[in-house]
Each structure stands twice: as structure tokens, then as C-alpha cells.
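Worked problem 6 (solution included).
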Amino acid sequence: LQQCLRQLRRREMLRIAWRDLSGIAVLNDILTELSTLAEFCVESALDWCHREAVAKYGQPHDVAGEAQHMVVLGMGKLGGEELNFSSDIDLIFAYPMAGETDGQIDGQKASRKPIGNSEFFIHLGQRLIKSLNEITVEGFVFRVDLRLRPFGESGPLAISFDAMENYYAVHGRDWERYAMIKARVIAGDRRAGEQLLKNLQPFMYRRYLDFGAIESLRTMKELINKEVRRKKLEDNIKLGEGGIREIEFIGQVFQLIRGGREPELQVRGIQAVLEILKREALLPAYAVEQLLAAYRFLRRVENRLQMVGDQQTHTIPSSPQAQARLAYAMGYAGWDAFQIDLQLHRRRVHDQFELVISAPQIHLIEQHEDTSTGELLDLWLEQLDEEESVAVLKNAGFTDPHKAISALQGLRKSTHYQAKNSIARSRMDQLMPLLLGALGQCSDPDVTLPRILQLLESVMRRSVYLSLLAENPIALSQLVKLSAASPWIADYLSRFPILLDELMAPGNLYAPLNRQQLEQELREELKHISQNDMEAQMDRLRSFKQSQVLRVAAADVMGVLPLMRVSDQLTWIAEAILSYTLELVSRQMSDLYGEPYCRVNDEEIPANLAIVAYGKLGGIELGYGSDLDIVFLHDSHGENASTRGDKSIDNEKYFIRLTQRIIHVLTAFTSAGKLYEVDTRLRPNGSSGLLVSSLQSFEHYQLNKAWTWEHQALVRARVVSGAKSICTTFDGIRRKVLARPRDLDELRVDVTGMRAKMWRQSGSERKPVFDIKRDPGGIADIEFMVQYS
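Solution. The predicted structure is:
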């Protein structure tokens, strides 16, 4: 086994090196071939060693008698299929469940008694490492590194799935999240391994936007920098400034922050990550192109360095001969020309790294002795006396410093702040001087401060939001700007702090989408979520609505949107959500019961549902807190009206269940809140009527039974989602009803009577406050006059 693996490895390395140096293959081909070679060698060796171990100890089983097999996870560059020429391979060994070997080989007793699965797989792992790592006269196959396993070098060589999941849930650290992003099953029981990785997803990718990842990666990079300085590794193209590691950090910080909410970022290769960042405009296109060019250049340099002596090196050589060899292997005529391009790539990488990962505003705090930022930090930390604090706040722009000091002290003494761990407090300490400085620049800092402190108190339990504001001056400035302009927006952000992410892109924040763009954006956001994962679908619908409403509100308070466009925008958001919800729930219902059909004039035709909007939604006048007045209509009629599926039900029952599900999606409370309040009382016969009506019964009711006030409501009614055929039929019914000849005296009595009843029930009669909607002279009077006409 050892001889065959080593001969194979030498032959393949020669072939791959020749393809690389001669220019026959591009970089991606080379990285993939090296990774495939390593994966093949590990899997082949594992198969051999497993058979050998079973022959010695018997087949391992779980307590239920199911055979157990090892799972090998490839980490790092092997996991990302980006292996370099002389890289070691980072592995983790795991097995599904505890148990023991059966001590039987083909019905015969094994040479030893049964042993536990843990002992069996540790032995198997040791044998596998030896087959790959041991240096013989034929050389070695791959250097093996298992230090990324749970508990590192002190942990067991192989670990059960349960123990592994428990480790990451209880002991997992930020750098292990970073490492697990690239984990991939490369050998053994692949199906079980994929399930393990799926179970570990919540550890790797948070369901919220995790801006604390920036601080973690910055800490890791600082440790690397200290090691670089200590060992004088400035010429190291992997760890030094502008090196490969900085490119990886740039991509992976976005994965750690957004991967839980944007599954497309859950890829392993750094080049694929960067392409996604460009496509989603999370990084400028020019920056991504520079990073990709630098990555490909540096990886080619890395491979050529390691081809010399098969050494795991990343250091630029110092001898003239080695420099000339490297330059020539990279296609340059001489060292000077190569050095110019090398430094250009590294400088571009480091500049982007500084923009994404570094936090220059925090360095200002660290050097605070003679700066206003430092004085504000001292004030927040209560290191100044009252007179000094008043002077600092006056200098910062506050007109009532005593009130501000009291508010700040109240936050510091609150249970929310006192109960926080050192990390959360540190993030708050970073943020507060920046916030106070930004507040001093706004029009009314004394009024705006308590609004933002209320927000901070509500988000303190998730300190990642504090990191977001501390790490992003643009987001912080937008928060101050919007909170100063609108207490409603400040409160909205307090209730839905995930929206703080929207403040990072002012270009989008003040540019609400039109109706078509909203539908496209919604489908794009939800395309990666399974339609069967209803909880995730509902959460994303709510976050979509919240982010779009924030855009409208921001554009509204800043005067970007005229007043009449605000209601248009809010209506379009609701329409897009209703259309998507109807499609989503219809697909789910069809999967359960089949498509609804009916037979009319001996022809089988599909039956459909539509949503009719009344009130403000129907009139395209939706407000920020408006509920949705909706009515459901279907066009099923004729004979044999039922679904065509294995679990067939009649269409009436189908549409009632469909409607109930739609209402549930819209009104249920989830971790992301509620979408809308829904009112269906304008349906035929009101609350006592069927939840969904046929077009025929709707028409009959409107022509023969409906009250005048129901015809008033019909004035603003329109179909907002569903089959076009129903829309056309509904419009015809509506015209017929509204165009009927009427006795004007009787109509006047009905309309004025309904108006008076509304005032008695909902107005502010005998109250000193004027209700601008329902009281006489309010909006309702205008609406009633128009409806009467």
C-alpha cells in the first residue's frame, strides 16, 4: 500500500507540475487536480486500512446492529479544493455512533475480543495517518495535520458525531467556525458525513447577521501578524501583508456575517466566494477583480516555490539564483519586473483588507489622550467629574449636557449593560464615543440621544449589532440621521434590529423599489429556501417587508419621496408579498392534494383563486401601520369540482384550506414578527360568511343582499393577486354593481347614517383629541363624499 501510494503520488505530481509550468493548464485546473489526487489517496488508503482493521477486530456496529464506517473531513485548502503543490492536508476523523465490533469475520471469530467503536476508529485513524505521512525510501504521500479536530492535539483522534456536535455547541470558538467553512467529506461514509455537516451548519452560519465575525477575524490576523514579526516572515506570501490569508479573510468574513441568511455564500472555494460578493454588490467589482488577480498570481508563485525540493514554503527567496528561477518560472524575463508585479498585487490586497477588516476608528480610541473621541470615551467610562463631562458634551454639540449625562449613566447602570459579558461591554465601549461624536453633528442631539439609547438597550443582548455600528461609520451616521428625523424609524429599528444592516448602503436605503423590482427582489431572496421549509420562508418574508418599509420611511423623512408616492410604495410591498404567498401556498397545497379542476360543458378546466383588496390596500393608499382588508374568490363551478391528486378533495374544501394557510402565513408571529394584520370581514355575509366565495355567489350577494356600505367598500376594491380570468370577471361584477341606478335620497340617508355610526363607534366623541381619520372634518368625510358620488 505505502509503495503504491508513493509511486502514484510522485508520478502525478510530475504530471501536474509539467502541466502548470508549461502553461497547458490554468491555475484552477492545477488546484483541482492536486485536491483530487489527495482525496483519491486518502480514500484508497482508508478502504485498505478499514479492511485490515476489520480483519483484526471485526466490523464495528452501533447499538442497533448497523455497520459503522469512518468519515474523513478535509479541511482548509483540501476542503476548498484549492490544495497547493506541497501542502499538508488537514483532516478530521469521525464516526456516526458508539458501539462495538462484532468480533466476527465472515462468520468466524476474529483474533481478538470485540472492542469499542472509539478504539476501533482511533486504531484505523492511526493506521491511515501512517500510510500517508510516514517517510519511506519512496518518500511520503501527504503530510497529515489533525490539529483542527475537537480539543486539538489533546482530543481523541476519532470522535463520534454526537460528541463532535456537542463540542462545537459548547466549546466551539470563532476560529473553528472559520475553519469549518471549508469542511468537506473526502472519504468514508459520505452520506453520513454530509448529514454531520448539515447538523453543524448552525455553528458555522448564524441565522442573524453576525458582525462580531469582523472582530474575531481581526484578532486572528493580529495574532498572525505578531507571529510574522517574531519570525521575520514579512516576505511570506501566505501570512505576510497582502498575502493569500488576507484574501481568504476578506471573503470569509462575509461568509461568517451573512452565510446564515444568504445560503449562496455557503461555498468553500475563495474564488467562488469573491465572485458572489461581486454579483451581489457586497464588494465593488473592481476590488473583486483585483483580489482574484492577486489570488491567482500568489497561488502560482506558491506552487512554483514548493516545486523546488517539494518543500512547504511560502517565503520569497533571497538568493539571486533562486530569485531568477522563480521569476523565469512565472514568465518574467528578470527579477525586477516580477518584484514590481508582486508588490502591486500585495499592496492592492492589503488595501482592501484594511477597508473590510480593519477598523481605523477604533485606533482613534486607542490613541485618545489628546482627541475629542478619547474624551468622549472617558466620559462614557465615567472617568471624568461632572464639570469635565458637561464641558466635553458641550464641546461635542449637546445643548443640555446634564440630561445627556443622566441618560448615559442610566444605560450603564441598567441590568442590560451590567449583565453583559466582557466582549459585549468592550463592543459598547468602542461604540459609545463614536456615537456621541456623531450625535454632536446632528441637528438636535439632545432629542436624538434617548431614541438611540433605547435602540441600544434593545439590541444589547445581541452584541453583534453593536459591532456592526462600531465597525461601520456609514451605518452609524445613517442611524443618527434617521433617528434625528423620525422617532418612528428609531422605534422601528429597535423592534427589528436586523435592519441595521440596511444602513450600510445609503445608495439603496433611499431608493425604494418599484412594483416589478419588488417582485424580482423577493423571489431572489427566497429562491434558495426550500418551499417546504415554511418557517424559513415566513421569516424571510417578514425581513423582506421590514427592510422595504424601512427604505420607504427613510426616503419619506428625507424628502426623497413625495407624499403620494409613499402610499404607492407601501401598497406595492403588500402586493408583492400577497402574490408570492399565494403562489407558495398553492404549490404546497397542490403537492398535497393535486391541482383543482372542474368540468364545465363537458370540458375540464383548472379552478383558481384570487385575492381582492379593499380599503386602503384596494385604493393604493396603504399607510405604515395599515392592516390588509382582503376577500378571497375562486372560479370553481360546474361538475366534478375536485383536485386531481392521490389525496383528492372537493374544491370548496381545497380553497378554504388554501385561504386559511395564506392568512396563517400573513398573520402568524414568528421570531421575525408578524407580516400584516388581516381583516376579511368585508366578505359576503361578513364574519359569519364563508372564508372564500365563488364568483357566482359573490355576484349574487352583491346584487341582492349587500348593504349600501358594502357597495361603498366595493368602490376601492380590486384584484391584487391571482388568476387574470378572475380579475376580468370581478371587474365586470364591480362595474355592474356600482353602475346600478340608485335613489339619491335613500343613498344619502344610508351614507350619512353609516358615517354617523362610524363616528359614534370609533371617533373621539367627548374627547379633547381630534381623530384626523374618523372625526367630522377628517379623512373619512372625504372618502364618504367620493364614494357617494
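Discussion: Confidence is low (pLDDT under 50) at residues 359-371.
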